UniProtKB/TrEMBL annotation:
Substrate binds at N9, W10, K11, G178, S218, G239, G240. The active site is at H100 (electrophile), E172 (proton acceptor). It is found in: Cytoplasm. Pathway: Carbohydrate degradation; glycolysis; D-glyceraldehyde 3-phosphate from glycerone phosphate: step 1/1; Carbohydrate biosynthesis; gluconeogenesis. Homodimer. Its main location: cytoplasm. This is Triosephosphate isomerase.
Amino acid sequence: MRQHLVAGNWKMNMTYQDGLALVSEITNMVADEVSGPQAPQVVICPPFPFLHSVGKLLPQGSRFYLGAQNCHQKEGGAFTGEISPKMLASVGCEYVILGHSERRQYFGEDDELLSQKLKAALAAGLTPIFCIGESLETREADETFDFLAKQLKDGLFHLSNEEFDKVVIAYEPIWAIGTGRTASSAQAQEVHAFIREQIARAYDAEAAQNTTILYGGSANAQNARELFAQPDVDGGLIGGASLKSRDFTEIIKSF
């Protein structure tokens, strides 16, 4: 059965000291909510320099997990400034975000590169949180479903059944990231259901039913409960709200 999951993507925010204080606050505030087998998994994705120290603060044996915001497609080599999946695993990472719209837009990451990153992350034992989503122009042109179907086909559906079983998908409408705009719960459900239908066509109904699909477009403490109540929305990839302990813990408690 698929998991409920909330992932906090800090992006390029926080100092080291502020980041450690934030994690301590979050873990103390939601210890009870993340202790049982039905509780959501919580993934904290800080900047690279904070990973090891943040991981040390996550309660052992809990449903808190450490995640990274990106990785390189190679295991090692002369790639100055890059971080390999093997390195991430060695400091305790279990998840990695791949294909975020900001990586696609600002760093030119395309489906071919992301396919390599996916394979490398899976080979290192990491669970990819693979992001897809349309721009405002695409949505207004009524091309959302065609666009998402192509992103899924080119970015994910080359994986084997066994590999695909280890992937989490995050739907992040680009027009709702950092803008304060949010898809309505009905819009989110419609797209999540469509994604599940595409998975069933590419793999099978069981794979579609078992895949965790997150909503990642400006979810916050006020709208999380309604979003997460939708049958095909399994949680959220949270940006700005993950930087505020009270907001993030309220989102976790929304389940």
